[in-house]
Design brief:
- It is a single chain.
- This protein is mostly helical and about 375 residues long.
- It contains 16 helices and no strands.
- The protein is globular and about 55 Å long.
């Protein structure tokens, strides 16, 4: 009970950062205990370090493509999103996605970033919901192609491979099914959400449910509106979908660069397929930045693509440095001035603007369901 009371008083952000630090310490302990730490300078020697620079450059390119997707989503609207604002908000996401469980803090802070650049809160929220739908479609596509291509190798070498893949795809498929249901049967989905809320209202979570159910309902209505608008603009969907695929490849090619840096020479297609499978599985872990699950999944899958006696632990460390810690620290400068509990003026402005939009959307939904 004392531990639970301690958790209640500690900030969720501090708790997340603490978990990330613990995972990093565990990884470093493993490297020193296994003797792999002595091989780390070899990965940074020339010309192997060139592969690490290529991986870092690929990550940076992915951020610009992600900003481009957001820019395209906002084109032609009453309040278009400037490209610089789209890139800035993308960098904010890099930080908050990685320090919050299941990347839950990324989108709210991205809305704040766009609002700071003059984009209305309601418009920013709607565009980001549409972008999320496109991202999920691209992620599942990459995951399916990757698993299909590499399935024979991994199924033979990894015990329980099928269950590992099923775990990842069940989570991602559930998200996609929910998004599709919101377009096809929005009223049924809202009824289901309210039914679950009524059940939770009978538990100790009733205070939290009562406080957020209106906001959840508003977000569902907003997503329905944005998804229908996106479906009515097929050229926009195709364009942003292709850009998102390119953005994902910028992330998926990083493990190939890591393999080359530690002496491995896997085929590019096999490395991309393994990276896609890793992303599908690891993104399903509800920890900050998928910490713990990401390292284990990467080590399990990429150990098959590296030569015997290769420093798998070093490969995991380099991969996390490029795909997790690098974005984390690169996004920090863009988060200066982010709303905090003590920064009441900024936070109050965002909340007030959001409340006004929510009231308008709820009114429109009531008139529509009339």
């Amino acid at each position: 009970m004392r531990f639970l009371r301690w958790l209640k008083h500690i900030g969720s952000r501090r708790l997340s950062i603490g978990f990330i630090v613990i995972c990093f310490i565990v990884l470093m302990i493993y490297l020193f205990a296994s003797g792999e730490a002595a091989q780390l300078p070899h990965a940074f020697s020339w010309p192997r370090s060139l592969w690490l620079l290529l991986g870092a450059g690929s990550m940076v390119a992915g951020w610009f493509f992600e900003g481009w997707v957001l820019y395209e989503m906002g084109r032609g609207l009453e309040h278009p999103i400037p490209y610089k604002a789209a890139v800035r908000s993308t960098m904010v996401v890099q930080f908050f996605n990685n320090i919050t469980p299941s990347s839950s803090g990324g989108q709210p802070m991205q809305i704040w970033s766009l609002w700071r650049d003059g984009v209305p809160v309601g418009r920013a929220s709607s565009v980001l919901l549409g972008k999320f739908a496109v991202y999920q479609a691209a992620l599942v596509t990459c995951g399916m192609l990757g698993v299909f291509y590499a399935n024979d190798l991994f199924a033979q070498q990894i015990g329980g491979w099928v269950w590992l893949v099923v775990f990842g795809f069940v989570v991602q498929a559930a998200i996609c099914a929910f998004l599709v249901a919101m377009i096809v049967k929005p009223t049924a989905v809202r009824r289901l959400v309210h039914f679950i809320a009524r059940l939770l209202s009978r538990t100790k979570a009733h205070t939290f449910v009562d406080r957020h159910i209106v906001q959840v309902d508003t977000e569902l209505v907003r997503f329905e509106t944005e998804a229908l608008a996106l479906a009515g603009r097929p050229s926009l969907f195709i364009r942003t979908y292709l850009l998102t695929l390119i953005q994902l490849q910028s992330v998926l090619i990083v493990p190939y660069c890591i393999c080359r840096a530690v002496g491995g020479t896997p085929s590019l297609l096999m490395a991309l397929s393994a990276a896609a499978a890793t992303l599908i599985v690891s993104s399903s872990f509800p920890t900050p930045g998928a910490s713990g699950g990401a390292e284990g999944t990467f080590a399990l899958i990429f150990s098959l693509l590296l030569p015997a006696q290769s420093p798998v632990g070093i490969a995991v460390l380099l991969w996390r440095l490029l795909t997790f810690y690098f974005p984390l620290f690169a996004g920090m400068p863009f988060c200066i001035g982010a709303p905090k509990q003590e920064n009441a003026q900024v936070a109050e402005t965002v909340v007030t603007a959001r409340a006004a939009v929510d009231a308008a959307v709820t009114k429109d939904a009531s008139e529509k369901n009339g």
